[in-house]
Write a structure and sequence with these properties.
The chain is of the alpha+beta class and 229 residues long. The protein contains six helices and eleven strands. The strands form three sheets. Strands 5, 8, 9, 10 and 11 form a five-stranded antiparallel sheet that branches. A four-stranded antiparallel sheet has the order 2-3-1-4, with helices on one face. The protein has a two-stranded antiparallel sheet with strand order 6-7.
């Protein structure tokens, strides 16, 4: 596997940078994650045709974690950047604390051959099978059930497993992102926190590098892990 770098990044608080706040974060008509996506690209866009080779997550306003195949370069002096190589020494049976914000989706037929294979977020897909007057009361249980089921499928493909009682599904946020394109992007975002057990270390690290779910360009899919204390 190629080298990976894990970075902790924060927007500098110096007046020369903080005065840009209204420009960077308060752009009318744009979702916050679209603005943050552009900020993160300043650290990696070294050529016009560069493809995204990093994952990122905003932990709080102006503070980010980034996992990348290249070390970030702060060419515009906007950030404080702390970078180290990401080389976790893992073994089968290791238990890790994790946090994941993801767009959890499932392929679902729309009843039309031309639209077959489209993807819905897992909560919306489940809600559509429930009568409208029952959806509000069923929503909380569906988020938990469908979220855990999606995470279990990810684990099967990524070399980890977990006990349901050790994982919380903290919420479900349907989000619409309107960028510069004509079409809005609709994402169903779920947050997972808990403990997992490694079954295949190499497969697990490989999947962390590529990310989980969709919407990765918008700060989703980066699983943060640490050893249990």
């Amino acid at each position: 596997m190629n080298n990976l770098f894990l970075s902790r990044i924060s927007v500098r608080e110096e007046p020369s940078v903080s005065t840009l706040g209204p420009i960077l974060f308060d752009v009318s008509g744009h979702h916050r994650s679209e603005i943050s996506r552009r900020l993160m690209w300043t650290l990696f866009a070294d050529s016009p045709d560069r493809k995204r080779d990093f994952l990122w997550r905003e932990s709080q306003a102006g503070r980010f974690y980034v996992l990348s195949s290249r070390a970030p370069e702060d060419r515009h002096q906007l950030f404080n950047v702390e970078t180290k190589e990401f080389q976790p020494a893992l073994s089968a049976g290791d238990r890790l604390v994790f946090s994941l914000r993801a767009n959890a989706t499932v392929a679902r037929s729309r009843g039309n051959a031309d639209r077959a294979g489209k993807r819905d977020d897992v909560v919306m897909a489940a809600l559509k099978s429930i009568p409208k007057d029952e959806r509000a009361s069923a929503r909380k249980d569906l988020i938990q059930r469908e979220g855990l089921a999606w995470l279990r499928r990810q684990g099967m493909a990524a070399g980890f497993e977990f006990n349901d009682k050790e994982v919380s599904v903290d919420g479900y946020e349907p989000t619409t992102i309107r960028g510069t394109g004509k079409r809005a992007l609709r994402l169903g975002i779920i947050e997972f926190d808990g403990v997992l057990t490694i079954r295949d270390p190499d497969l697990f690290v490989s999947k962390i590098a590529s990310g989980f779910g969709r919407g990765k360009a918008f700060g989703l899919g980066l699983m943060l892990v640490r050893r249990m204390r």
